[in-house]
Amino acid sequence: MEFGGGFTFDKEPCHPDNCSLFIGGDNLAGMTSLTIENWIKKNETIPQNFAHIFKKRKENYGFIHFVDEETKINFFEEVDGKKFKIGQESEEELTIHFFPLVRKKQAEHKTVDSNYGPSHNLYNLYDDGTIFSLYINIPTINNKDEISLYVDDDDKVVIISGEYKNINIVEGNHFIKKLIPTGRFETKIPLPSRIDPTKKVKIEKVDAISLFKITFTKGEGYKKRRLSIE
């Protein structure tokens, strides 16, 4: 198991990875899915926009599932890095916290060798009417030519990839924490609606820092079309 940027696992949840989070905590072994779910629902500080909990009684961890990826993202933004007390009626103090999913085979092939993570580039997303404006911080990247842009089949998820540069810093032999990322990265950013992949994307460097503004033209919504019948 891996705590921190993600939680490594080798079991299969009943929902896809992009609609699931890991739950862990203290003294959860022996508790059923329904018990954990009911206790979470009694804690008003935990968002309630999840589908259900999946947990084996003997395990000290489980899964929390969501109806779609956007709901999961909104949930995680509110609980990331926090630990919650549940089960006040229990004799033992029970706590629960939430982690992204990382499969073991993904962790073994992970090329980013820092705690920053391959998909944690901080960004702001704005809706400017006919366009989406994305401001994203990509450490060590100084030129837009070092960035590759893709869009998924539904034209609603933008994928930004590249490679962080190695920074040679000589400050003795021992470091306390290493958070400046290195290696390949890939950041997936879900959008509220489709973009038009036929339009050119504009990338601008913002000032002298590693902040880029990327502008996407919105696409038309899905329309019902009449089908011809032979």
Automatic annotation (TrEMBL):
Superkingdom, taxonomy of origin = Eukaryota
Cite the Gene3D superfamilies for this sequence.
2.60.40.790
Q: InterPro entries from the entry?
A: A-crystallin/Hsp20_dom (IPR002068), HSP20-like_chaperone (IPR008978)
- Report domain SHSP positions: 114-230
Q: State the family named in the UniProt similarity comment for this chain.
A: Belongs to the small heat shock protein (HSP20) family.
> Can you name this protein?
SHSP domain-containing protein
The scientific name of the source species is: Rhizophagus irregularis (strain DAOM 181602 / DAOM 197198 / MUCL 43194) (Arbuscular mycorrhizal fungus)
